[in-house]
Amino acid sequence: MNDLERYFLDNTDRRIDKWMHYFQIYDRHFSRFRNRDIVVLEIGVLHGGSLQMWKQYFGPGTRIYGIDTNPKCKALEEENINILIGSQSDRTFLRSVKTLIPPIDILIDDGGHTMKQQRIAFEELFDHVKDDGVYLIEDLHTSYWMRYGGGHKRMGTFIEYSKTLIDRLNAWHSHQRSLRADSLTSALESLHFYDSVLVIEKKHRERPIEKRTGRETIEVEIPPHLRSGNYLAHPDLAVLLSVNSLLRFLRLPSFRL
Hints:
Elements: H1 3-10, H2 22-30, E1 39-43, H3 49-58, E2 63-68, E3 81-85, H4 91-100, E4 104-109, H5 115-125, E5 129-137, H6 158-169, H7 183-187, E6 188-194, E7 197-202, H8 235-249
Parallel strand pairs: 1-2, 1-4, 2-3, 4-5
Antiparallel strand pairs: 5-7, 6-7
């Protein structure tokens, strides 16, 4: 049992609602930030219990910020805990947040859990997370719940949106115009998918570099279609590659080369 889970189970102060398997995820990705002067933003305040939990877990030098639509949540402010009132689906409000609080080390989206809210919050606030910071979205099971706009493989859910981040992470290796490396490619270090949770670790990256060291010890036969430019000397192979290029465009499975 880690310190976060222990705090939660012993809690008799402000209410905290969490799925029990979240605590291992939190500790795995947050423990390196403990006892540092960091900035934490949590979207979704409710009773304010989790804000107190983060304050205790990270240490006295931590500045905690909360966002909620309920103006009554302002009454939950205390030393090192500040609360901003507004909607995470309001882009103008979120842009103002970036002028009011310092760059963020850890952002936890535990807000309204609708598809629009999760997507807009990420699009507006991810760039305010520091290099080497963490952006965590929880309760992603709402992507499967109809009352939140969810459904299996339903267009517009945050789960489907997050799958596109996998492509953005790997975009350096794409040869197609439909997927090009961009600023997000350079900012994504890793994506960690768990039951109901996505943890995005942010770190500036350059284009990956492949290097080889050591000496060759065995003769390796390279298949003709993998030899650069070799298909030009093989008409049948060139036709097959052309067909597969069309299938790729149509997003259909390829013939085996």
